[in-house]
């Protein structure tokens, strides 16, 4: 079966697609925090411990039960093989070995990846804000070393705790200086005011001036889990609650649009990561409907544009196994310029190592130009990446 690349290379000379995953992850190794953290936090630094029954887990001060490692690196396993717990020996070594990472990229048919943390996502919800900040700074130091092996293919995200506006701007500056392409923000800031508050506007403007678009990743501190890592919110089984994780990025987008953040900071660009995309046509319609029918009695803010118009100018959405998104593009319901594809390696939702076969199936009926846009061009444009000729 021809892959998504092979199908068009013969017909469109010089226009072959070089897929870039806009959302992949690392598995932070045992030394990532211990060796890189501020020395005064070293005794409390996140570390790997072994339990005779559950195997290895990340022990994090203040997080009861720690974090099982099994789902962090389950790419390529069948659903029945995925377990919550595991050992480091059983994980994909490329999660922390950058040289092996390039081989796994080649195996999956991707040219490069925008890489996010794993343990760092859980740390986004830590209640001790100083400890959280120290851990994130340690991660930024470690991931900069990881990416230095092949910076043209390992396109990494930094972190910031968002506990103070001035400090968060400094974190942006440091991440930019380190060559990072984005900074992953916790779903909730540490301040008493939320992201739509004008007090955050200098941070948003700094991201524009530095040309480093921030990103919001599902589950980055907003999972609604207890300290043992179990879902506690929602109705019914955990599977039903898990479906709702995409609400986090939807809610943030709605908050930023309806509160007028983009009118105040018109150059702001944001990536919404791993929240799928097939839902967007309906949400755009629904936001316009709400604005037209309800903004007066609900005392909504008067916007310069219709809510749906802000999406194309300010957002990119990443998705992996979302055939509906491709179908919406093919049907003309969803603008391909909004989307960036991802393989989510090495997490449980990963399409690795069969991403090209999945894309061949999912992109039937989608033009070559739109496929190239979603798989390559949007990522290179958004993050200002120059691929070799």
Task: Note down, in words, how this protein is organized.
The protein is of the alpha/beta class and 389 residues long. The protein has one domain: TIM Barrel (Alpha-Beta Barrel). The chain contains 15 helices and eleven strands. It has helices at residues 6-9, 31-34, 98-108, 119-123, 129-147, 165-177, 201-210, 238-243, 247-258, 261-264, 280-294, 307-314, 323-330, 355-362, 368-382; strands spanning 20-25, 47-51, 55-60, 63-68, 112-116, 154-159, 182-185, 214-217, 270-273, 315-319, 339-341. The strands form two sheets. Strands 1-5-6-7-8-9-10-11 form an eight-stranded parallel beta sheet. Strands 2-3-4 form a three-stranded antiparallel beta sheet. Helix 6 runs parallel beside helix 7 (201-210) and helix 11 (280-294) crosses helix 12. The chain is globular, with a radius of gyration of 20 Å.
Can you tell me the CATH architecture?
Alpha-Beta Barrel
Mean pLDDT: 91
CATH hierarchy class name: Alpha Beta
Number of domains: 1
Q: Ends: how far apart?
A: 28 Å
Portion in beta strands = 5-15%
Overall helicity:
25-40%
**Structural class by helix and strand composition:** alpha/beta
Number of helices: 15
- As an assembly, this protein is single chain
- Give the CATH H-level superfamily: Metal-dependent hydrolases
What is the rounded Rg?
20 Å
| Lateral arrangement of strands in the main beta sheet | 1-5-6-7-8-9-10-11
**SSE pattern:** HEHEEEHEHHEHEHEHHHEHHEHEHH
What is the name of the CATH topology?
Answer: TIM Barrel
* Quantity of strands, as a count: 11
Main β-sheet, in a few words? Answer: 8 strands, parallel
pLDDT < 50 stretches = 9-13
Name the shape in a single word. Answer: globular
């Amino acid at each position: 079966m021809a892959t998504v690349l092979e199908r068009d290379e013969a017909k469109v000379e010089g226009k072959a697609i070089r897929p870039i995953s806009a959302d992949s992850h690392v598995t932070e190794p045992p030394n990532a925090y211990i060796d890189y953290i501020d020395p005064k936090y070293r005794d409390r630094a996140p570390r790997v411990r072994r339990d005779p029954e559950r195997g290895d887990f990340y022990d994090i001060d203040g997080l009861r039960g720690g974090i099982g490692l099994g789902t962090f690196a389950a790419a390529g396993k069948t659903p029945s093989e995925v377990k919550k717990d595991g050992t480091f020996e059983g994980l994909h070594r490329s999660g922390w070995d950058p040289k092996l990472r390039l081989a796994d990229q080649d195996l999956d048919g991707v040219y490069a990846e925008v890489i996010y943390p794993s343990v760092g996502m859980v740390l986004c919800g830590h209640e001790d804000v100083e400890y959280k900040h120290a851990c994130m700074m340690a991660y930024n130091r470690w991931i900069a070393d990881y990416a230095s092996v092949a910076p043209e293919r390992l396109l990494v995200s930094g972190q910031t705790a968002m506990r103070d506006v001035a400090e968060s701007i400094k974190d942006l500056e440091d991440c930019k200086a380190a060559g990072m392409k984005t900074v992953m923000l916790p779903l909730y800031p540490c301040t008493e005011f939320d992201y739509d508050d004008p007090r955050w506007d200098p941070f948003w403007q700094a991201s524009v001036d530095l040309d480093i678009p921030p990103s919001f990743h599902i589950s980055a501190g907003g999972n609604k889990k207890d300290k043992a890592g179990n879902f506690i919110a929602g109705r019914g089984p955990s599977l039903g609650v898990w479906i709702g994780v995409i609400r986090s990025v939807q809610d943030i987008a709605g908050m930023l649009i309806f509160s007028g953040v983009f009118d105040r900071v018109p150059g702001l660009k944001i990536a919404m990561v791993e929240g799928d995309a097939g839902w967007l046509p309906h949400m755009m319609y629904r936001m316009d409907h709400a604005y037209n029918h309800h903004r007066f009695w609900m005392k909504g803010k008067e916007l310069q544009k219709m809510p749906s118009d802000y999406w194309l100018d300010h957002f990119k959405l990443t998705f992996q196994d979302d055939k509906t998104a491709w179908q919406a593009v093919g049907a003309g319901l969803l603008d391909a310029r909004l989307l960036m594809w991802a393989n989510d390696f090495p997490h449980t939702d990963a399409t690795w190592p069969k991403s090209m076969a999945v894309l061949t199936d999912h992109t039937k009926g989608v033009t070559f130009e739109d496929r190239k846009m979603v798989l390559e061009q949007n990522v290179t444009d958004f993050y200002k990446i120059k691929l070799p000729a």
